[in-house]
Amino acid sequence: MSGNTGSYIFSCLFVLLAHGGMLLNVFINGNYSSISQVIILAGAVLILDAAYFVAMPFFKQTTYTVDFLLILILNMSVIFQSCFGGVSLDVKHYITSIVALAACRGGYLVCRNHKWLGQQRKFFYIGIGVLMLAILLLTGSRSMWISLGSITIQPSEFIKPLFVLACATSITEQQKKHKILFFYVVYENLALFGLTAAICLLQWWCRDLGSLPTFVGIYACGFLLRICYPKAKFSKKKLIGAGAALLAAAVAGMRFAPAYVQDRLHVDIWSDKNGDGYQQSQALIAIAKGGWFGKGPGYGGLHKVFAHENDIVFATISEEWGLLYALMMIFAILILVAVPLVNPPRSYFHGTMAAGVCAAFTVQMALNIFGSCNMIPFTGVTIPFISSGGSSMLISGFMAGMLVACQSPTMRAPAVHNHERQQPQQPVFQQQRRPYP
To answer: Where are the alpha helices (DSSP H) in 56-142?
Structure first.
């Protein structure tokens, strides 16, 4: 097994202790009619912990930090979701959490080799195009969901990792400038800008403006890192122009937003508690009732409000578990996305990919939390790993695997042809850090 065995065991015990403490809280303070409900929930959580701890060493990685944080957060969400309105294992969320863990392994295996990913760049654009076409043709009248009987799929969620990869793989193209009229441009940058504009227009047409800031955040991170790329040579005039264009687009979007968006921008939730301000007013009341330590698992009343398990899940957790628990949950997710950014031994590509995933997760959390707290208009965006939803959990898991790949990338030397063997080779970057969990 890669890494220090003692540290690995200590990390396992830490995760088990955290989940054990939460389950003890459920046992002492929870709202349940039979002790068997608590036993089933505890057994499901601890079995998933143990199974993942056993499976992880089979994947030879430099570090398992993201993996431990992921299993910590996912089983926290299983406990949260299983207590809304009364203690009972949420089987659906438990299954989607397992799917997220499997998707994490897939994301790691797919994204660890930046050279191979660079060769697949065109397929990312094709995949995004196919998904956008599916949204237009299969979701119905201006919707973002495809209904397959009792199952619903949100194709826009699948666009997010492809868009992150499209931004990351464009990094190597920054030195390939071409002259168009009086300007030197990079074709890849033009393609990405056009793709971003198309995604934003699609979100606008489908009346799903809540997800739009997520894609803008991914593109903004990719754009800034392309500026920092060696010899990219972005002029100050171009940067000022890009900033002005972004500001103008934001102002125009606010000015010409659809009527339902305008209502959310200007609604007084306390004067319209039974209309547009219903969810936010109920969420704020629930947070206030929960205080720092909550009313107790299963004793909340917000579970009667629509979308309590996803769109306003921060408020639902705050009511039952307290604001302290809710903030600890958010802090754990922020650590998960920050770890790959602060550990330097990786390629520029993997740094850009990590920044894109970090932007997506952070923007989604901010929109959900600030919207629930009435600090911004209500958007209905989910919190990664915490909110229920199959598409969201699957893609969040895959993007977590992208972060694992950033921590343990495959750095292979390019193939050497026979006529090049006589020439001295440049040293290939290799990781030199000591493994740690």
So the answer is: 65-81, 91-111, 114-119, 121-138
Give CA–CA dist 169/190, Å, rounded.
Answer: 14
pLDDT tens digits, residue range 372-422? 887 777 777 889 999 988 889 999 999 999 999 888 777 655 455 555 455
pLDDT at position 252 over 90: no
What are φ and ψ of residue 380, in 5° steps?
A: 80, 20
What is the C-alpha to C-alpha distance for residues 177 and 118, in angstroms, rounded to an integer?
Answer: 18
pLDDT of residue 268: 67
Domain boundaries, given as residue ranges, for the chain: 5-411
> How far apart are the C-alpha atoms of 10 and 18, rounded to whole Å?
12
Cα–Cα dist 413/430, whole Å: 10
CB distance 309 to 388 below 8 Å:
yes
- Window from 8-22, 74-88, 270-284 with minimum mean pLDDT: 270-284
Tokens, residue 221: 């991170």
Rounded to 10 degrees, the C-alpha dihedral 367/371/372/373 comes to: 110
The residues facing 151 across adjacent strands are 148
Bridging pattern class, strands 151-153 and 146-148: antiparallel
pLDDT in tens, 183-199: 666 677 788 888 888 88
Contacts of 374 (CB under 8 A, 6+ apart): 269, 280, 281, 283, 284
Helix (H) or strand (E) holding 146: strand 146-148
Q: Which pLDDT score, from 0 to 100, does residue 155 have?
A: 83
Q: What is the percent of the chain where pLDDT is above 70?
A: 79
**Four-residue CA torsion sign, 408, 365, 360, 358:** negative
Helix (H, G, I), strand (E, B) or coil at 273: coil
Residues 108 and 405: beta-carbon distance below 8 Å: yes
